[in-house]
Recover the amino acids of this structure.
C-alpha cells in the first residue's frame, strides 16, 4: 500500500532525558524516523523534553516542542498542532507509556488523531504480562511458568510454591527496574515488594529462572499487509539471567544450528503476526543449551536499544523503515537505501559484531557491580571484524575503561578462590576474570561450569590468551623486530605479529610488552606490510553493489575499494560510549561538525564506535568508520582515506567535538604528525595542564581561587593550611569531576588522599580554596582572531555541585551587569591568548562582584546543544567553519541576539539512581546525572516548572515535606521551611533541624532517628508519608551514614530528594508557575532573535 | 598444510587446507547464509561447485547426524574465512575439519572470502580449482584443460541408483509397505534434498524416490497421487531425457517442481532457461506471490532461471517473482495441475516460511 494520503501531519513522541535503559538510541531512531516521514512529504510535529538531541533540531522536524513528556503537555501540543496521526513506538518506553496514557484517556479521539503503526491493542498485549502469556498459550508458544502478583498477600502465597530460583520483573517500568533473582522465599518477598512499588501498575511477574540457558534476540519487522522479516538475530555471551542491555552480545548468533536459528525465527515471526505489530519489534528467547526447547521471554513492540544495535550491526535502518510502515507502506514498496533493492529481505552479514556495555562504576565506586535483570549500563560500544577475537578486542579497547586488551590488574591479584567467585558471578568485569582464568590455564569446561558461558565463546577468549602468552614469550624478538635489528627468526616473528593483528591485538599492547613507543611498533608493523583493510557494511554480504560508505577495518585481506579522491577531507572524531560525564551532547556536536563540513564542501569522515548514536547513522557523514577511537585506528584511517599518492597529513582531524575522548587524542595525534584542525594542541595544554593554566591566568590577570598543584600529602596539607579550609581537591586531568572532593578539614583531606589519590599514583592533584559562591559558564566560538560568546549560563545550585548536575538558566537571572561584563572580558582574554579556533567552555565561580575562572575545557561542552537551541546560534557549524579557515566575520550573521521577547530556558539534570543500588544520590563535585531536560517559557518560574517536571520530579503542591539539614544550612533552611509552611505544607524534621525551625516559630513535627522509635524517619520515607525530602549532606560522617540510607529510601520510594537548598528554592518558585505556562514550538520561543553584524 | 584456490582468470588465493589433501575443480559460487553449512555441504545441487560461505566463521556448531540433506558430502570444494575446530552444540558429532577430511572434500580456510565474493559478483561465476598438492601455476594449467561446469551432467551422478521410499521413519527400502499413508508421491530424484520427503512425511505422505531416468510409464505404473520434480545441479538444458519424461507426465498427474524441477517443467512446456551471472544462493531472497502480493523470505540455490516471456508463451502463469531482480520464482497451471517454485520450500537451510507449499501440493492431489 502506498503512503496513506489522508495523513498530512504526524506527531512523534521522543524518549526524553537519557537514563539507564533509555539512552541515545532513541535520538538515533527518532531522528531517522522523522526524516523518513518528511521524505514522504509529511509534516512532522515532535515533542521531546531533551534538548541535547538531534531530533529536536529545526532540520529534523517541522514543529518542535521541547516540553515535559506528560499527558497535559502532550495534549496541549495535540490541540495546537492538530496532527492526523500519532506515532508512539519511536520514543522508547517513555514515549510508549505516554502514548498509551493519551490513548486510554480518550485524548486521541477527542482531537481526531489516529494512532499509527502497531495498534494499541498489540502494545497492551505485549506489555501486559498476563495478556501476553494468554496470547502465547493460544498460539502454542512456550512461556516459562510464572505468576502475576499484585499485592503483598499474593506475593506470600507465590513464595510458598515457586520453583526457585525465580526472577522478579515489575510491569511497566524502564529497563527492568526493580527486578531481581530470588533464591528463596525470603529473597522473593524482599525483591517482590520493591517491585510492586516501582511498577506503574503495581504489578510484578514472578517466573521460573532460566539461568544458564542461551539468551537469543530477534529483531523483526512486520507491515500492514502481514509481510514479516527478521532483520538480525543476536546471541548473548552472558547467558540468561543478565539483562540483555548489560550483556556482551554477538551478532549474528554464533552457536545455533540452522535448525535452531529457524526454530526461533519462526517463533518470533509467529508472535509478531499474532500481536499484529506494524513496525519494528524485539523478541527475546531462551534456548536450552542441551536440547531444542525454548521459551519466549519478552517482546518489545517498538524500536529499542537492541534495534539500534541491529541497525548498526547490519546496516538495515529499522527506524526509518518502521516509520514508513506506520504510514501505510509495505516492505516490498520500500527500498533498502543501502543496496537500492527491496527492504523486504533479511540482511546477511559477512563479519562478526560484538557489543560490550559501558558501566558507570568508575563514578560509583560503592555501586554493586554484580549484574542481573536490572540494567546498569549507561552506554555501549560495538565492534566489527572478520573474526570474533578481533571484534572482541576492538570492543575492549574502545570501551575507555583504562584497558586496551584483556590484561586487568585486579584480576591478576586475585586468589584462586576469589577468581572462581568472580568467574561465577556476572559482573561488568567478568570478561577480564574469565581471561585471567585461562591465563592460569583453567580448562574451558571448568570456566563453563562456573559461568554457564557457552564453550564456543570461552574458546575464543582462550585463543586470545594463548596468543597473549605467545607474544609475551616472544617479546624480545618482537622488540628486535620493532627496532629494526637483525633477527634470525624475523620471518616467524612477523608471522606471529600478523596472526596477533588478525586477532586485533592493539599496537599499544606491543608497545607495553616491548617497552617501545607505540609509533615505533606502528612503523615496524607497516614495514612488514601489516596494515588493515577496510570492508563495507552492505547488508548483503557482498551480493549486491552497495552505495553506503559505511566501513570497518580488519587486519586481513584487501580493501573493498580505494578511498575516493576528494579535493578536501576532514575527520571528525566521535565521543565513544555514553557514560556519565560524556553523554549524548557530544554526539550532537559530532553530528553538527560533520554537517558543517559537508556544507563547506569538505568530505566529512566520522570515526566512532557507539551504535546508539546519530553520528553513526550512515547518511550523516560522507564516510562512516565504525572502529575504536584510538590513536592506532585514527592513523590507519587517515592513511587509508588519503590513498597512495597523497600525503595523509592533508586530512585535518577535528578533535573538539567528541568530548574528552577526542581531545585526549590531540597530543598523541600531533606527535604522530597528524594535522589537528582548530586550536593547537599546545594551546589545548594551556587549558588542560594545570601549571600552564595558572601561569596563563596570572599573565592575563584573571582571578582564580587560590590554590596549587601538589604531588604529595604533605604539600597538600601545607597548601590547605595556607589558603584555608574548605578546599577543593582533584586530580589535574579530570573528566566529569571524577575523584573530586571538598575537604572541610585536615582529616577529610587526608582521607581523600588515601582513597582517591593513591588510586592514581603520580598524577598531580590540585588543592584550591573552595569558593562557595554561585557558578556560571560560557561557551566561546573563535576563528583565532575574532570570538563570539552566544550567552552566559547561570547555575542555580552553588559551587560544589558538578556543573553537569546543576540546573542552569539562560539568560542569567541574578548576575549583576558588572559580573556578566567580567565573565565576557575574562573569557575573551583567554580565547585571545589561546588563539581559540573552534570552541571552548569556561567555568566561573562568583563571589561578591568577582568572577573566578575555575576551568577551561578546550572543546565543545555539554551545554552546546542547549545553548545553540535557546540562542538560535549554529555554534558547531560556525566553529567548524572557523577551523576550515573561514573567518567568523564571513559566517554571516555573526551575532544572533534577542531584540524581541526573550524566553527563559532552564536545563535540569536527570539521574538514574534508581537503577544503581547502593549508590550515593546527594549532589557533589562528582557528576552523577545521566541526562538532562529543558524547560522553556516566558517566565523564570514557568521555565523552572517545566524543567523540574520534565526531569521526573512531580511538583507537590501540598502535603508533607521532611527536612534534615546540615548545620551550616540551617539558617537558610529555616527561611525555606517558612515558605513551605506558608504554602500549606506539613513539615517534618530530624531533631536538630526541628529545633531550628521551632526557634523560628515554624510548626514542625520531630521524627525519631532510624531505629530510635516507631515509626522512625525511615518509615516515613518508605511508606511515603511525606511527599518531599530535603536533605543536605553534612561533614559529620556518622550523620551521613543515616542520611545516605534515607536518600536511597526516597529514591526507591519515588519521593523527590533534594540535596541542595538552591534546588529546593527553585522548586518553590516553580510551584508559583502553574497559571502562566505556555506550550509553544521552539520557533515561537525564539522568534525574537534577530541576526546582526557586529 | 597450505592450499591454493586458483581461478580461471589466473588469480590465486592461498590459505590453509582444512579438508582432504589433493585437488578438485568446480564452478566457484558463494552462499550468503549465516547458518546451514551442513545442509549446504550435503545438498546435491552443489555438485560440481566449489562453495564459498560469505559468513566468515564456519563450523561453530559442528556437524550432527540429523541435519544431512543427502547420503554424502556433495560439493566439489569448500571455501571459508575461518573454520572452527572446537564446535559447540549439544548435537555436534564432528568438527568441520574432520567431516571434510572423512568425506574427501578439498577445502580451504584463511583467505579473504569477501574479496572473492566481490570478484564473483563483478565477474560472474567462474571455474576454479582447489589444490593442496600442486603449485598454483600447475593447477591453473590443469584447470584450463578441465571440462567446464556448464558442459557436464551432474544429475546422473547424484541421482539415486535405485528407487527407495521415505516415510515417517525416514528412508526405507522400496518394498516397504505403504499402509498408514494417506497419499503417495513420486519424487523424480535429480538431486533431492531429504528435507523434501521429510516435509511430505509430516503431512502423512509416502514418498517414492525414483532415479532421474525412470521412464514415464514406470512412474505412472506406480499410480502416485502426485509427482514432485526435485531440485538438482547443473544446466537444465542438458537434461533432455528427463524433460521428455516430464512432458509425458504433464496432465496425467498433479506435478510440483522445485528449483531444477521447476526449470525442467517449464522446459517441458517449451519455455527457455538461461544462466544467471552469479545466481541466488542464500537464505534471504525476497519473493512476491503475485496473486496475493505477499512477500516471503526464501531459501535459494540456483544458477539458472527461466526466461519470463517464454514461460508465458508456454501457457504457464507466473505466480512468484524475485523482488531483487524480478526473475521468475514460481509458475502454475491449475488446469494441468502444475505448480512450481524456483526456491526451496523445504528450507534446510533457510526460513520455514514456505512450508505451506507442501500443503498446497497435497491439496492439488485431492
Amino acid at each position: 500500500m502506498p503512503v496513506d494520503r489522508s495523513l498530512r501531519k504526524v506527531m512523534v513522541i521522543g524518549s526524553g532525558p537519557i537514563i539507564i535503559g533509555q539512552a541515545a538510541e532513541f535520538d538515533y531512531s527518532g531522528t531517522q524516523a522523522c526524516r523518513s516521514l518528511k521524505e514522504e512529504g509529511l509534516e512532522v510535529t515532535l515533542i521531546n523534553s531533551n534538548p541535547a538531541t538531534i531530533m529536536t533540531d529545526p532540520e529534523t522536524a517541522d514543529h518542535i516542542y521541547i516540553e515535559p513528556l506528560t499527558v497535559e503537555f502532550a495534549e496541549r501540543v495535540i490541540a495546537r498542532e492538530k496532527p492526523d496521526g500519532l506515532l508512539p513506538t519511536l520514543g522508547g518506553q517513555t514515549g510508549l507509556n505516554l502514548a498509551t496514557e493519551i490513548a486510554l484517556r480518550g485524548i486521541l479521539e477527542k482531537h481526531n488523531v489516529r494512532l499509527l503503526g502497531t495498534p494499541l491493542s498489540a502494545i497492551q498485549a505485549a506489555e501486559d504480562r498476563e495478556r501476553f502469556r494468554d496470547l502465547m498459550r493460544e498460539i502454542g508458544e512456550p512461556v516459562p511458568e510464572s505468576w502475576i502478583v499484585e499485592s503483598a498477600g499474593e506475593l506470600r502465597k507465590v513464595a510458598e510454591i515457586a520453583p526457585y530460583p525465580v526472577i522478579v520483573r515489575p510491569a511497566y517500568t524502564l529497563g527492568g527496574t526493580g527486578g531481581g533473582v530470588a533464591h528463596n522465599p525470603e529473597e522473593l518477598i524482599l525483591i517482590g515488594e520493591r517491585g510492586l512499588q516501582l511498577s506503574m501498575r503495581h504489578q510484578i511477574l514472578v517466573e521460573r529462572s532460566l539461568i544458564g540457558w542461551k539468551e537469543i534476540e530477534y529483531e523483526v519487522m512486520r507491515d500492514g499487509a502481514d509481510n514479516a522479516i527478521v532483520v538480525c538475530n543476536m546471541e548473548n555471551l552472558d547467558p540468561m539471567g543478565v539483562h540483555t542491555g548489560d550483556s556482551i552480545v554477538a551478532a549474528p548468533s554464533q552457536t545455533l544450528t540452522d535448525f535452531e536459528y529457524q526454530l526461533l525465527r519462526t517463533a518470533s515471526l509467529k508472535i509478531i503476526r499474532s500481536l499484529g505489530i506494524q513496525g519494528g519489534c524485539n523478541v527475546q528467547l531462551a534456548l536450552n543449551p542441551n536440547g531444542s526447547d525454548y521459551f519466549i521471554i519478552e517482546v518489545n513492540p517498538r524500536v529499542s536499544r537492541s534495534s539500534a544495535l541491529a541497525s548498526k550491526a547490519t546496516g538495515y535502518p529499522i527506524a526509518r523503515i518502521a516509520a514508513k510502515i506506520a504510514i501505510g507502506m509495505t516492505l516490498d514498496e520500500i527500498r533498502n537505501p543501502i543496496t537500492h533493492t527491496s527492504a523486504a529481505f533479511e540482511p546477511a552479514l559477512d563479519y562478526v559484531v560484538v557489543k560490550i556495555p559501558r558501566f558507570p562504576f568508575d563514578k560509583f565506586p560503592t555501586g554493586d557491580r554484580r549484574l542481573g535483570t536490572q540494567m546498569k549500563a549507561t552506554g555501549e560500544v560495538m565492534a566489527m571484524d572478520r573474526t570474533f577475537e578481533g571484534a572482541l578486542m576492538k570492543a575492549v579497547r574502545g570501551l575507555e575503561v583504562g584497558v586496551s586488551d584483556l590484561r586487568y590488574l585486579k584480576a591478576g591479584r586475585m586468589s584462586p578462590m576469589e577468581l572462581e567467585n568472580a568467574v561465577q558471578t556476572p559482573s561488568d568485569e567478568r570478561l577480564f576474570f574469565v581471561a585471567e582464568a585461562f591465563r592460569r590455564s583453567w580448562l574451558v569446561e571448568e570456566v563453563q561450569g562456573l559461568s554457564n558461558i557457552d564453550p564456543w565463546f570461552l574458546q575464543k577468549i582462550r585463543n586470545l590468551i594463548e596468543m597473549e602468552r605467545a607474544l609475551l614469550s616472544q617479546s624480545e624478538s618482537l622488540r628486535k623486530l620493532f627496532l629494526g635489528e637483525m633477527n634470525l627468526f624475523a620471518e616467524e616473528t612477523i608471522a606471529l605479529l600478523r596472526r596477533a593483528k588478525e586477532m586485533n591485538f592493539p599496537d599499544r599492547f606491543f608497545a607495553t610488552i616491548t617497552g617501545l613507543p607505540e609509533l615505533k611498533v606502528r612503523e615496524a608493523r607497516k614495514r612488514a606490510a601489516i596494515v588493515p583493510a577496510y570492508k563495507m557494511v552492505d547488508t548483503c554480504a557482498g551480493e549486491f553493489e552497495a552505495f553506503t560508505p559505511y566501513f570497518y577495518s580488519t587486519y586481513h585481506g584487501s580493501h573493498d575499494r580505494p578511498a575516493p579522491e576528494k579535493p578536501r577531507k576532514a575527520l571528525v572524531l566521535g565521543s565513544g560510549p555514553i557514560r556519565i560525564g560524556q553523554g549524548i551532547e557530544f554526539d550532537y556536536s559530532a553530528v553538527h561538525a560533520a554537517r558543517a563540513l559537508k556544507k563547506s564542501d569538505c568530505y566529512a569522515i566520522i570515526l566512532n564506535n557507539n551504535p546508539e548514536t546519530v553520528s553513526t547513522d550512515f547518511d550523516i557523514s560522507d564516510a562512516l568508520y565504525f572502529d575504536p577511537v584510538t590513536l592506532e585506528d585514527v592513523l590507519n584511517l587517515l592513511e587509508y582515506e588519503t590513498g597512495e599518492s597523497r600525503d595523509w597529513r592533508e586530512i585535518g582531524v577535528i578533535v573538539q567535538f567528541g568530548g574528552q575522548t577526542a581531545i585526549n587524542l590531540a597530543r598523541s595525534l600531533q606527535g604522530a604528525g597528524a594535522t589537528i584542525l582548530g586550536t593547537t594542541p599546545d594551546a589545548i595544554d594551556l587549558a588542560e595542564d594545570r601549571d600552564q593554566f595558572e601561569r596563563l591566568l596570572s599573565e592575563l590577570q584573571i582571578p582564580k581561587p587560590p590554590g596549587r598543584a601538589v604531588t604529595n600529602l604533605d604539600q597538600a596539607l601545607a597548601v590547605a593550611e595556607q589558603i584555608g579550609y574548605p578546599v577543593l581537591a582533584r586530580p589535574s586531568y579530570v573528566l566529569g569531576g571524577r575523584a573530586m572532593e571538598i575537604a572541610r578539614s585536615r582529616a577529610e583531606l587526608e582521607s581523600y588522599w588515601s582513597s582517591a589519590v593513591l588510586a592514581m599514583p603520580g598524577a598531580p592533584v590540585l588543592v584550591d580554596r573552595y569558593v562557595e559562591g554561585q557558578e556560571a559558564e560560557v561557551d566561546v566560538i573563535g576563528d583565532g582572531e575574532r570570538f563570539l560568546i552566544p550567552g552566559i549560563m547561570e547555575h542555580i545550585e552553588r559551587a560544589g555541585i558538578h556543573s553537569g548536575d546543576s540546573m542552569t538558566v539562560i539568560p542569567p537571572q541574578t548576575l549583576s551587569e558588572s559580573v556578566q561584563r567580567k565573565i565576557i572580558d575574562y573569557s575573551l582574554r583567554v580565547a585571545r591568548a589561546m588563539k581559540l579556533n573552534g570552541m571552548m567552555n569556561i567555568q566561573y565561580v562568583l563571589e561578591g562582584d568577582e568572577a573566578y575562572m575555575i576551568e577551561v575545557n578546550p572543546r565543545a561542552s555539554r551545554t552546546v546543544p542547549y545553548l545553540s537551541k535557546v540562542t538560535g546560534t549554529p555554534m558547531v557549524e560556525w566553529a567548524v567553519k572557523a577551523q576550515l579557515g573561514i573567518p567568523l566575520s564571513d559566517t554571516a550573521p555573526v551575532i544572533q541576539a534577542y531584540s524581541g521577547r526573550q524566553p527563559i530556558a532552564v536545563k535540569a539534570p536527570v539521574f538514574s539512581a534508581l537503577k544503581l543500588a547502593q549508590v550515593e544520590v546527594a549532589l557533589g563535585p562528582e557528576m552523577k546525572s545521566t541526562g538532562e531536560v529543558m524547560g522553556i517559557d516566558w517566565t523564570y518560574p514557568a521555565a523552572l516548572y517545566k524543567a523540574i517536571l520534565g526531569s521526573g520530579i512531580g511538583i507537590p503542591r501540598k502535603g508533607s515535606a521532611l527536612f534534615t539539614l546540615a548545620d551550616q544550612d540551617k539558617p537558610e533552611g529555616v527561611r525555606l521551611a517558612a515558605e513551605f509552611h506558608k504554602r500549606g505544607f506539613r513539615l517534618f524534621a530530624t531533631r536538630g533541624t526541628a529545633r531550628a525551625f521551632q526557634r523560628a516559630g515554624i510548626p514542625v513535627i520531630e521524627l525519631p532517628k532510624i531505629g530510635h522509635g516507631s515509626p522512625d524517619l525511615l518509615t516515613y520515607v518508605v511508606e511515603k508519608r511525606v511527599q518531599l525530602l530535603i536533605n543536605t549532606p553534612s561533614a559529620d560522617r556518622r550523620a551521613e551514614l543515616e542520611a545516605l540510607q534515607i536518600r536511597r529510601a526516597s529514591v526507591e520510594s519515588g519521593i523527590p530528594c533534594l540535596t541542595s537548598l538552591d534546588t529546593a528554592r527553585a522548586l518553590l518558585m516553580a510551584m508559583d508557575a502553574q497559571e502562566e505556562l505556555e506550550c509553544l514550538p521552539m520557533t515561537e520561543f525564539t522568534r525574537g532573535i534577530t541576526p546582526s553584524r557586529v | 598444510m597450505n592450499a591454493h584456490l586458483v581461478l580461471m582468470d589466473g588469480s590465486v588465493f592461498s590459505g590453509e587446507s582444512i579438508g582432504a589433501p589433493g585437488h578438485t575443480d568446480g564452478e566457484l559460487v558463494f552462499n550468503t547464509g549465516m547458518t546451514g553449512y551442513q545442509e549446504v555441504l550435503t545438498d546435491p545441487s552443489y555438485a560440481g561447485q566449489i562453495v564459498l560461505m560469505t559468513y566468515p566463521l564456519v563450523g561453530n556448531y559442528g556437524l550432527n547426524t540429523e541435519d544431512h540433506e543427502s547420503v554424502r558430502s556433495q560439493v566439489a570444494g569448500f571455501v571459508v574465512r575461518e573454520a572452527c575446530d572446537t564446535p559447540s552444540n549439544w548435537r555436534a558429532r564432528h568438527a568441520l575439519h574432520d567431516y571434510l577430511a572423512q568425506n574427501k572434500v578439498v577445502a580451504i580456510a584463511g583467505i579473504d572470502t569477501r574479496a572473492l565474493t566481490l570478484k564473483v559478483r563483478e565477474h560472474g561465476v567462474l571455474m576454479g580449482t582447489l589444490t593442496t598438492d600442486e603449485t598454483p601455476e600447475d593447477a591453473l594449467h590443469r584447470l584450463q584443460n578441465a571440462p567446464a561446469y556448464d558442459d557436464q551432467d551432474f544429475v546422473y551422478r547424484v541421482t539415486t541408483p535405485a528407487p527407495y521410499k521415505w516415510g515417517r521413519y525416514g528412508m526405507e527400502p522400496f518394498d516397504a509397505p505403504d499402509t498408514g499413508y494417506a497419499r503417495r508421491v513420486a519424487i523424480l530424484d535429480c538431486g533431492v534434498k531429504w528435507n523434501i520427503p521429510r516435509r511430505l512425511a509430516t503431512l502423512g505422505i509416502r514418498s517414492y524416490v525414483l532415479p532421474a531416468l525412470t521412464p514415464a510409464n514406470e512412474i505412472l505404473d506406480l499410480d502416485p497421487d502426485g509427482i514432485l520434480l526435485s531440485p538438482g545441479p547443473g544446466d537444465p538444458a542438458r537434461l533432455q531425457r528427463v524433460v521428455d519424461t516430464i512432458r509425458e507426465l504433464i496432465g496425467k498427474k498433479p506435478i510440483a517442481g522445485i528449483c531444477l524441477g521447476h526449470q525442467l517443467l517449464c522446459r517441458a512446456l517449451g519455455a527457455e532457461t538461461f544462466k544467471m551471472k552469479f545466481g541466488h544462493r542464500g537464505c534471504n531472497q525476497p519473493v512476491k506471490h503475485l496473486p496475493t502480493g505477499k512477500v516471503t523470505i526464501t531459501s535459494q540455490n540456483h544458477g539458472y532461471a527461466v526466461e519470463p516471456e517464454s514461460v508465458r508463451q508456454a501457457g504457464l502463469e507466473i505466480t512468484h517473482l524475485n523482488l531483487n531482480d524480478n526473475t521468475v520464482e514460481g509458475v502454475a497451471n491449475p488446469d494441468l495441475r502444475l505448480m512450481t517454485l524456483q526456491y526451496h520450500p523445504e528450507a534446510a537451510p533457510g526460513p520455514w516460511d514456505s512450508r505451506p507449499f507442501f500443503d498446497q501440493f497435497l491439496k492439488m492431489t485431492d
User: Anything to note?
Assistant: The domain at 2-151 of chain B is CATH 3.50.30.20 (Glucose Oxidase; domain 1).
